[in-house]
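Sequence in, structure out. Go.
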Amino acid sequence: MTSFWKNKSNWLKSAHNTKWCLLGCAIGDFGTIAYFQYNDHQMSVFTVMALATFNGLLTSIILETIILIRSGFEFSKAFKTAIGMSFLSMLAMEIAMNSTDYLLTGGAIITWWVLPLALIAGFITPWPYNYWRLEKHGKSCH
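Output:
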């Protein structure tokens, strides 16, 4: 079983896939938090973070769909692949990023020192799962 986790090629490929997912999630998530951070609103921290999570998932699906279309997939197949193969990964990523933000700032606050920590947490959390899917099933997002 220990050799299962030693495929360097699949670690690199899964890291590459996780990176694209992180980019998509971060755009929607941090963009939403920044919008509400700099504009007056009456929403609770948890409502803003839930909306940020939703938008992060949405932008990640959009980005992954575009990447798959550019690599030759038809739109419907690209969209289904983006949702089906990486949704659990994206959800774990969003929870990790927003939990890090909440634990360090009280939530829904973008600061220069929290961004890299949230991104690291968002990357590391789904990466083993993405490797596992690639190694066991030969499935990856891109």
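Check: The chain is about 75% helix and 0% strand. Residues 8-38 form the longest helix (31 residues).
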